[in-house]
Design a protein that fits this description.
CATH superfamily: ACT domain
Oligomer: single chain
Shape: elongated
Distance between the termini: 10 Å
Strand order of the largest sheet: 1-3-2
Radius of gyration: 12 Å
Order of helices and strands: EHEE
Number of strands: 3
């Protein structure tokens, strides 16, 4: 098992966090960490996701 980090830039709107985390839970991934913060552009946010997976499932 390897620790994986995924960094995304998403629209800074209500419901985006739920949609993205729902995509991962729908595929049965267990998120180890999830961090979201506003960028210099207030319409965008940066999402950093930490998860554990093997080479077959990722």
């Amino acid at each position: 098992m390897k620790k994986r980090w995924i960094s995304l830039f998403v629209e800074n709107e209500v419901g985006v966090l739920a949609k993205i985390s729902g995509l991962f839970s729908g595929k049965s991934y267990n998120l180890q960490s999830l961090t979201v913060g506003e960028t210099e552009d207030p319409t965008m946010a940066r999402m950093t996701i930490g998860l554990t997976s093997d080479d077959i499932t990722f």
